[in-house]
Design a protein that fits this description.
CATH architecture: Orthogonal Bundle
Strand content: under 5%
InterPro entries: ABC_transp_perm/SBD, MetI-like, MetI-like_sf
GO biological process, one term: transmembrane transport
Number of strands: 0
Keywords: Membrane, Transmembrane, Transmembrane helix, Transport
Low-confidence stretches: 220-224
CATH superfamily: MetI-like
Membrane topology: Multi-pass membrane protein
Pfam family, one: BPD_transp_1
Largest sheet: none
Distance between the termini: 67 Å
Amino acid sequence: MGLLDTFAAAYSYLVTHSDEFLGLLEEHLTLVLVSVGLAIVVAVPLGILATRNERAKSVVMSVGNVSQTIPTLAIIALVFPLLGLGFLPALVGLFTYALLPILTNTVAGLENVDESTVEAARGMGMTENQILRRIKLPLALPVIFAGIRTSAVLNVGTAYLAFFIGGGGLGVWVITGISLFDTPQLLAGAIPGALLAIGLDSLFALVEGRLSGESAAGQSPVSG
C-alpha cells in the first residue's frame, strides 16, 4: 500500500467512524484544555510569588522541575490508589506536566521587565501591586503565553497516554492501531492530534496578540 493509499484509508476509517472520533476528540480536547487551564491558575500566581521572595522562588522552581521530570504515567501510577482509573487521574498527570513551562516563563517574563520602567512607575507613586498589574504583567504577557502555548502543545501529545488508565482521547485509536498493526486507525488518531496541536498553538497566539494589544492601548503608568 502506497503512502497516498494509506492516508486515503485513514481518512475512510475516520469518516466511517465519525461518531466515535468526535467523542474521542472531545475527550482529548477536554483533557488538554482543562489541564492547561488549571496549570495557568496555579502556575501564574506561583510565578508571581517566586519573583517576590527568593526562598519561595527556590521552593517553587524545585517543585516545578520535579513535576516535569516525573513521567506522566508514573504520576498516574502514584495517584491511582486514590483516584482509580478514568478521566481524573489522567487530568492530574497532564496538569502536573503542564506546570513547569508556564511557571518558568512567568518568572522569566516578570524578572526581565526593564528595571528603569519599574523605577519610573515607583517614582510616580505606584504601589507594588499596581506595578505588577499595570506594568509587569502586560510586558511579561508574551513570555507567559509562550509557556502556555508550550504546555498546550506538549499536553496534546501526552494526552494520548490517557488510554492506558481509561481516560479516553485519541490515544484509544493510536494505541489500538499500534497493537493491531492497523495503520489507517493509527493515522486516523495521530493526524488529528497533530492538527489539534497546531490549532491550539495558533489560538493561544491569537489570544496573546489580542490581550497584548488591549494592554498596550488601555494601560499606562500614569492612568488611574
